[in-house]
Fold each of these.
Amino acid sequence: MATPPLRRVTGMNDVLPEKIQVWQHIEATARRLLAAYGYEEFRAPVVEHTELFHRSIGEFTDIVEKEMYSFVDIGGDRLTLRPEATAGLVRAVITNGMLRGARHKVWCTGPMFRHEKNQEGRYRQFHQVDVEAFGFAGPDVDAELIALSARLWRELKVDRVRLEINSLGTPEARRAYRERLVAYFRAHESSLDADSRRRLEGNALRILDSKNPDMRALIDAAPLLTEHLDAESEAHFAALRAALDGLGVPYLVNPRLVRGLDYYTRTVFEWTTDALGAQNAICAGGRYDGLIEQLGGEATPAIGFAFGIERVVLLLERLGRTPAPAVPDVYVVIQGARAEREALALAERLRDALPGRRIVANLGGGNFKAQFRRADRSGAPLALILGDDELARGVAALKPLRQESGQTECMLTDLAAGIEAALTAARG
Ligand code: ATP
Ligand code: MG
């Protein structure tokens, strides 16, 4: 009986070497910027206790209601593949005793897991870069984090992005607002979809986050949270707007922006693009001043954001901003028995002498023509030809592969300098 073909898991993608360049470009740019702003990398597990996400993200959210990869392990623990990074990082600073009045600026990157409808820009394993500042009450840090994200788009040469901000106020202000909202939606209960009806009891704010187009008109006419902000949140939000104005970061105040997680307080923000169709959110975050205490740590204000790497990859591709593919600098073509014996050692010496250069030696033999074909396909601008005849004379040949200029010879004792010169010439 034939074995069934192997399949990959729906929504979980391989990133092939031919695509890795753009991923590494995004990751390296983020890593460099985060270091420049004083953020340190934090590596936390991909798996946490399921309860952590119920207690942080909230019961009446899309993520907890229907998207989590939860399982019982063979020891009987209820575990979940992290759907986002904030909860795990908060858990980590608490369990490592890192708070005690201390402040931390950290970031992490890695896969997140949500059982969503698989489509372009929406996957079941996706990757985020997640940034968190613990112990800062803001609004200065709010503005700086947003400026950091704005700089990221600038350095990635991404335009067609738009920043929306809002304030969700304090939990008390939200409670008062929630009551008004419940009254409003209850008056229109017959127009609610099933999700929204359930949320009316659990968390009416979540209804505002609905993606159901049939709910749009009703949501648009609902009372606004911004009209019910407490004075301190109002001042915080005004200071944030002034700081962004001062920094020259354009934004739009969107009083409907509530975000899909329960833990946010005061500042929330989201970057969207018009270049990706339906999956238009590339980066989002906000302040969560109550979460750390709620999870058993000492009361500590905090703010963070995350961007989705896959969507930024798509965006760079869409905008034609992907970096050129990496190619070797030199491909070493080997001819003859003595050359075969000496080629690997010679390539090693070249790697010592030319750190950072990509030197690819022909492996597995092959006649001259076949080796040149491989050299050509590698994309290298230069072939180094190592043959017994040349070795006997203490030289090697250098041949540009991307232009018509001819082959030259170079003393083996002078090979590193010869290669550098030939590369400069070959690249014009
Ligand atoms: P969306 O509104 O598109 O569902 P979200 O509000 O659920 O996004 P967040 O939880 O704020 O997203 O996560 C931050 C970022 O992670 C998003 O802006 C997006 O770029 C990315 N992201 C979220 N979910 C996915 C997914 N299923 N596949 C790919 N990227 C995702
Ligand atoms: Mg979502």
Note: The longest strand covers residues 104-113.
Amino acid sequence: MKKRIAVLASGRGSNFQAVIDAIQAGKIPAVCAALITDNPKAYAVERAKKAGIPVRVIDYTAFPSREIYEQSLLSAMQEVNADLYVLAGYMRILGAGIVRAFPGKMMNIHPALLPSFTGLHAQRQAVHYGVKVSGCTVHFVDESLDGGPIILQQAVPVIDGDDEDSLADRILQHEHECFPEAIRLFCEGRLEIVGRHVRVK
Ligand code: GAR
């Protein structure tokens, strides 16, 4: 049985594209039921249209308060009724009300080896810190900032002379492998959350 997934993205959407490609290639037993974005100008919207995926725009700037924006986002997510909500470069922190509504059903990709370099500009943080290895992490979302149970990680070397952009590009190649793989495992029913640990069955 195919799972229903919904993708939340705010920008370029290259991870979204990697997920679309993996679904179309038959590698993930899922249908992508919706793209939900906070940014009507996101290139991810073009990608969705090209793939025939319905788009819901919940434009943060169009709401009088954060509470009302979050209520609207929550309703849109509930209407999609997905088995899994995938944060593919969704650049707004989701409030506790949204996170609690979908326990164990929301995944995020982060461009660093968590728990290092949480929050925004993770690649810049890694370059500034001087680490020799960074990478990407796919994790379940809980109420902490980038702190939920880890599903997959890939390490990526930081090379002398790297700047934020060169490191981000290198990490991105790995994100495009890691994210569809984690989604595949979920959709095959092979992920089990045990406390902080994610077991792959
Ligand atoms: C990706 O590098 C993703 O890991 C990062 O934003 C980029 C989105 O690229 N996400 C975060 O930093 C979340 N805190 P994309 O739009 O091309 O997928």
Note: The pocket of glycinamide ribonucleotide is lined by residues 9, 11-15, 88-89, 109-111, 122, 172, 175 (CB under 6 Å).
